């Protein structure tokens, strides 16, 4: 099993995916433990002073004006966790919660939160034991971090609330901790607040979305090439010199992918045959431009995510050296800030939903073209065996169209909204969690949309008797048939075929089948 070691300087996207999706173990480096201890000393020194320090000896949010006496501070930290664990709705997916927990631990390990090493080690212990706190769909406004989701995680750390065990069964968190020999934490000054105040949920979902979309953009390049082939289109529009004169990196990558899939095809170049056409339709000819723009959007989103991965997001934060609230101690200080605002992450989550919707839309347009006898250049209506008696893939395209329509609704940005909270103290929020949740749905839909195009395009190629498809196309057809997606023939129950195509794309089978012939694709 892979082990991820957290230091003080952040983490990587690959490490987040390893922990969230592949159950990698988590350890703290000696550097991180030393930084945790040093920052805790600063917090303890400030807690002993009579002057109030936000997050250490005061209330929170709109209640920050109250100075809390030492005998109530442990209760204050417990109370903020309990009161903020106020989520509602369905349970969030296990991988999302694991990403959320790991990314919160990443910030804690930076040494800028004032959390004790013992608390950080306990956070790692929950991850390593496969204990996943129950987090609900609703409760984050994406500012002051993902408060309710993180609070549910902190609650489990205290041995309260519910959690899912490694067996997938939900039980009281205290029981699960006891079963794995983990002692619940007793929170001290600032620790409760430090466990709640970050963009970790939206960032985790952004990183997993990027991971999924990388595969889907390559998959869509492949299905676009298969559709071009089935439609007897021309691959001349994919020539590198054409894309060099408009040098968007993503466009060039998508065109190269398509060209490599089509290498050796006996179906391309027939656009001047029985029904001559000068140019292919936009959905075919402009496939690299549309998918490429999405690739470039994805690259920008990764840049934002990597900056966030290198960040320590908390409020207040512990800074080493200086004066300010440390009153000239020279050892360190605690400062309030606004780094918890989710706007940078929220914007790119919404941007990706827009790009994904457009990719889904162009996939659907190619599918519809394959099914229309007036535009498919010799294919039977709806790719049916006996059109009229058979309906072929008519309703598969309806399903795809319904998915595209929902994606367009999901592309409406969440981040343009803001709703005030905490008695107008938190009067502008990012709604980044909501942007992330709808993007996950959009990616699910996009996978299905690509699967329907794959289903139609492979059937269309097989119906072109007497013409030999590209070796990569042949490999796809062989692999998809072996995966349980049946080929042309009389009408049958289509849902199982579509489900098998979806599973094939989702698991990376489409990309694997092609790259076994072409070598790695972008």
Automatic annotation (TrEMBL):
Q: What is its EC number?
A: 4.3.1.3
**Enzyme kind, highest EC tier:** lyase
- What is known about its processing and modification? Contains an active site 4-methylidene-imidazol-5-one (MIO), which is formed autocatalytically by cyclization and dehydration of residues Cys-Ser-Gly.
Asked if the keyword Lyase belongs to this entry, the reply reads yes
Q: Which InterPro entries match?
A: Aromatic_Lyase, Fumarase/histidase_N, HutH, L-Aspartase-like, Phe/His_NH3-lyase_AS
Q: Which organism is it from?
A: Streptomyces enissocaesilis
Q: What does the sequence similarity comment in the record state about its family? A: Belongs to the PAL/histidase family.
Residue positions, PTM 2,3-didehydroalanine (Ser): 144
The UniProt keywords, alphabetically, are:
Cytoplasm, Histidine metabolism, Lyase
Record's Gene3D superfamilies? Fumarase/aspartase (Central domain), Fumarase/aspartase (N-terminal domain)
Q: Specify whether Cytoplasm is a keyword of the entry.
A: yes
- Gene that this polypeptide is encoded by: hutH
Pfam families xref list? Lyase_aromatic
User: Crosslinked positions for 5-imidazolinone (Ala-Gly)?
Assistant: 143-145
Q: Where in the cell is it found?
A: Cytoplasm
Main localization (coarse) = cytoplasm
How is this protein named in the record? Histidine ammonia-lyase
- Pathway info: Amino-acid degradation; L-histidine degradation into L-glutamate; N-formimidoyl-L-glutamate from L-histidine: step 1/3
Q: Which residues cross the membrane?
A: none
Classification from the root reads: Bacteria, Bacillati, Actinomycetota, Actinomycetes, Kitasatosporales
Catalytic activity field = L-histidine = trans-urocanate + NH4(+)
Write down the superkingdom of origin. Answer: Bacteria
């Amino acid at each position: 099993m892979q082990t991820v070691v957290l230091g003080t300087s952040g983490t990587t996207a690959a490490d987040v995916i390893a922990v969230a999706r592949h159950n990698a173990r988590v350890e703290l480096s000696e550097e991180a433990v030393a930084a945790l201890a040093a920052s805790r000393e600063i917090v303890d020194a400030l807690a002993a002073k009579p002057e109030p320090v936000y997050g250490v000896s005061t209330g929170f949010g709109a209640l920050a004006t109250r100075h809390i006496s030492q005998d109530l501070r442990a209760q204050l930290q417990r109370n903020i966790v309990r009161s903020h664990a106020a989520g509602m709705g369905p349970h969030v997916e296990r991988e999302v919660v694991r990403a959320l927990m790991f990314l919160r631990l990443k910030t804690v390990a930076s040494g800028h939160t004032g959390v004790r090493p013992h608390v950080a080690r306990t956070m790692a212990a929950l991850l390593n034991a496969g204990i996943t706190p129950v987090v609900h769909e609703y409760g984050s406004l994406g500012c002051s971090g993902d408060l309710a989701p993180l609070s549910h995680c902190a609650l489990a750390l205290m041995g309260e609330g519910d959690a899912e065990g490694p067996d997938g069964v939900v039980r009281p968190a205290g029981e699960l901790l006891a079963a794995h020999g983990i002692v619940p934490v007793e929170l001290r000054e600032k620790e409760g607040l430090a466990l709640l105040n970050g963009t970790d949920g939206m960032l985790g979902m952004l990183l997993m979305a990027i991971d999924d979309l990388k595969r889907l953009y390559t998959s869509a390049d492949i299905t676009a090439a298969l559709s071009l082939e089935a439609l007897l289109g021309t691959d001349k529009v994919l020539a590198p010199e054409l894309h060099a004169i408009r040098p968007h990196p993503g466009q060039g990558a998508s065109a190269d992918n398509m060209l490599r899939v089509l290498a050796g095809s006996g179906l391309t170049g027939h656009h001047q045959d029985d029904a001559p056409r000068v140019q292919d339709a936009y959905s075919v000819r402009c496939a690299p431009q549309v998918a490429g723009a999405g690739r470039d959007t994805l690259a920008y989103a990764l840049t934002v995510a990597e900056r966030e991965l290198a960040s320590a997001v908390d409020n207040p934060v512990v800074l080493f050296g200086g004066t300010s609230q440390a009153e000239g101690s020279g050892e360190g200080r605690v400062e309030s800030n606004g780094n918890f605002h989710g706007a940078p992450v929220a914007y790119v989550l919404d941007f990706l939903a827009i790009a994904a919707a457009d990719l889904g839309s162009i996939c659907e347009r190619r599918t519809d073209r394959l099914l229309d006898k007036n535009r498919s250049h010799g294919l039977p209506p709806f790719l049916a065996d006996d059109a009229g008696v058979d309906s072929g893939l008519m309703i598969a395209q309806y399903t795809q169209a319904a998915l595209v329509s929902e994606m367009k609704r999901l592309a409406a940005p969440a981040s343009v909204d803001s709703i005030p909270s905490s008695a107008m103290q938190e009067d502008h929020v990012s709604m980044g969690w909501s942007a992330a949740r709808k993007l996950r749905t959009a990616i699910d839909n996009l996978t299905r949309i690509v699967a329907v195009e794959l289903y139609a395009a492979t059937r269309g190629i097989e119906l072109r008797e007497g013409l030999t498809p590209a070796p990569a196309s042949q490999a796809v057809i062989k692999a998809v048939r072996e995966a349980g997606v049946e080929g042309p023939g009389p009408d049958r129950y289509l849902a199982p075929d579509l489900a098998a195509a979806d599973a094939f794309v989702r698991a990376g089978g489409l990309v694997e089948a092609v790259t076994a012939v072409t070598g790695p694709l972008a």
